[in-house]
Amino acid sequence: MRIADSSGMRPDADLTARARIRNAAIECFAEDGFDASFRTIAQRAGVSPGLISHHFGSKDALRAECDAEVLRKYTEVKTNAVDRPSEHLFGYLAAPGFAADLVVYMLRAIHAGGQPARDFLERIIDDARGVMAHGVQTGLVRPSRDEEARLRYLTYLTLGALLVQFLTTPGVTPEAFIASVQAGQGDQILPTLELFTEGVLADRTMLDDYVAYIQERNEGATHVR
Amino acid sequence: MRIADSSGMRPDADLTARARIRNAAIECFAEDGFDASFRTIAQRAGVSPGLISHHFGSKDALRAECDAEVLRKYTEVKTNAVDRPSEHLFGYLAAPGFAADLVVYMLRAIHAGGQPARDFLERIIDDARGVMAHGVQTGLVRPSRDEEARLRYLTYLTLGALLVQFLTTPGVTPEAFIASVQAGQGDQILPTLELFTEGVLADRTMLDDYVAYIQERNEGATHVR
DNA sequence: GTCTATATAATGATAGAC
DNA sequence: GTCTATCATTATATAGAC
Fold it and tell me: Any idea which nucleotide's C1' is nearest the CA of B51?
């Protein structure tokens, strides 16, 4: 079986121009956002701007293919990361800035809003669902009174914090940003561990009162029925 | 003393065209983002597009004035909210969607990135600093091992969650979005109280280990000096 | 398949009449 | 101060040559 880019080399040369354009667009979108122009993308792919329109028809169509490709590679990286390290894994992760481009592309997709943002968000929540369920099962994570609501809210929080920091970091490349996140930028490890271990509120009354209120409300609703 | 818009009425009529343009721009920027065109803004202000250039010179200059005005009104609303309700207060909060425009404008500023995003972020953190310090002082909020780092991280989290939800809510007006947030959209009250009261991790070992590591590192550094 | 050249639309900014 | 008309730029998309 022959796999196109199983080596660690830059897979530019033996790809069709169409695929090169798509990959260049993913990089440009990650670096500059989705208002990256055809000229920029064409230059990176080594083709003329007109060829992009010729192959993809419209910018929306180009972006749709990029979205799909990013999700596909994201799935690939994730499943490879769960399994034991295979030969496949290194080909992707060794390429400098590749996983970074994936993550930053998804941030850009959320940033741009619209239906694609919702699709990516749901996909991220789906993945987090498995991680959280596993954490609860192994006893690492507390059970929640509403697992689904917690899952979504925690995703909003963590994804949003990443986005805010990305947007307010001046002129950073995807690789540099992801590297700084992995290094625990700005002393965030301690506050993260504090919040996730101890919370921030000093006593339980607000939570307990609200839980009691919810229970009363539900009992009342059951009564009516 | 005569105050221009002390009444509860729409303050359009007796404002100069320049001020009407600025206010219209703030509304347009909040609703459509900063790529709202001069034509859109001019239409809302009831003037011609050319007049915007004539008064403000450039779009950046217009936005700078809008930023300043939003920050000014934000300060005004905040200080009025802290003091007892005065006559001034109602004039602003009664106007439908006014506080909403302020909040959403700031979200848009973060969203657009660059130096203005950093300015607004720092301003929000500054305000949160007082709130957190007060919470710790009254015993409502746990003290942190690094108050400043926690402050910043909590701001990233909460502001980011707001931004992600705003970006992934289809075609929502500023007023509707803020209203849904105030109503506790999507069952977020419970997970928020859970997280802030109990955290999510089941035991303390990760936090305790990290705190011990930090202390060792600091002692080592002190030794070297 | 690929390029060059061009059409078309929208934007911010400018000039001059009133 | 305000408007109309226009310019210059940029973007995507298209047409036709090679």
Answer: D2
Q: Convert the pLDDT of each residue in A166-198 to its tens digit.
A: 999 998 999 999 999 888 887 999 999 999 999
CA of A62 to C1' of C14 (A): 37
Q: Which of A190, A208, A209, A154 is nearest to B143 (CA)?
A: A190
Which chain A residues are within 8 Å of B125, Cβ to Cβ?
none
The predicted-structure confidence for A56-82, as pLDDT tens digits, reads as follows 999 999 999 999 999 999 998 877 766
Give the domains, in start order, of chain A with CATH numbers: 3-187 (1.10.357.10)
pLDDT (0 to 100) of residue B162: 97
The residue to which tokens 């390290």 are assigned: A85
**Cα distance between residue B216 and residue B193, in whole Å:** 33
CB contact under 8 A, B168 and A207: no
Express each pLDDT in B124-178 by its tens digit: 999 999 999 999 999 999 999 999 999 999 999 999 999 999 999 998 999 999 9
Task: Reply yes or no on whether the pLDDT at B36 is more than 60.
Answer: yes
Partner residue opposite A160 with nearest CB, options B146, B157, B211: B157
With 80 as the cut, is the pLDDT of residue B77 above it? yes
**A163 → chain B, closest CA residue:** B160
Query: What is the Cα–Cα distance from B96 to B93, expressed in whole angstroms?
Result: 7
Q: Is the pLDDT of residue A89 over 90?
A: no
Measured between CB atoms, which of A117, A194, A204 is closest to B144? A194
pLDDT bin (cut points 50, 70, 90) of residue B80 is confident
Sort out which chain B residues have CB atoms less than 8 A from A167's CB and list them.
110-113, 117
